[in-house]
Amino acid sequence: MTRGTPIPETMTLHVPFRIVKRGGRKEMQTPDRVRPERTPDSTLVKALARAFRWKRMLESGEFATIAELAEREGIAAPYLTRTMRLSHLSPDLVESILDGRQPHHLTLEVLRQPLPEDWSEQKRALGEAATPQDLRQIRGFTSEPRHVTVKEKGQA
Q1: In whole angstroms, what is the distance from residue 53 CA to residue 47 CA?
Q2: Do 144 and 151 meet the contact criterion of CB atoms below 8 Å apart?
Q3: Domain boundaries, the chain
Q4: Distance separating alpha carbons of residues 17 and 30, to the nearest angstrom
Q5: How many CB atoms lie within 10 A of CB 20?
Q6: CB-CB neighbours of 48 under 10 Å
Q7: Is residue 56 scored above 90 in pLDDT?
Q8: What is the CA angle 53-136-31, rounded to 5?
Q9: Which pLDDT score is estimated for 67?
């Protein structure tokens, strides 16, 4: 531009977004119709890797109990147990996490909640649930210590 060229009018562009915490860091979340490139959530990827590693260590007999493994890893046994739940996720869900394509609401906190063992039920539950509280309120889903039960409609 030269001095003689008039300056164009200012243009204001409004972009709807919100800031959410994902894995201890902030991320800009845009509306569903806007699909930016997603990168894998390193917190979820690390948790998946740990879950499968710990599962392999227990299955191989390297450690006899979860308490023994937790002591060796220097973590609390309940933390290890909740994180190992990720090793029971459906292959499609694991792949979407590794590719960074998981739903925005799918956080480590949500995945550490008791989940149905049936993969199609997991997909339904995690596709609809936005918070751990939502996940606990799924119709017909109850959780007892060390046992998960999915009840059919009409059963008591």
Answers
A1: 10
A2: no
A3: 38-138
A4: 5
A5: 13
A6: 22
A7: yes
A8: 85
A9: 95
Residue 137 confidence (pLDDT) above 70: no
Name the one residue in this structure whose structure tokens are 């590794």.
98
- What pTM, to 2 d.p., does this model score? 0.61
Q: Which two tokens stand for residue 125?
A: 């539950």
DSSP assignment string, 69-114: HHHHHTS-HHHHHHHHGGGGS-HHHHHHHHHT-S-TT--HHHHTS-
Least confident of 18-27, 119-128, 145-154: 145-154
C-beta atoms surrounding 118 within 10 Å: 13
| Cα(81)–Cα(70) distance, integer angstroms | 9
> Model confidence at 145, in pLDDT bands (50, 70, 90)?
very low
pLDDT for residue 42 is more than 70: yes
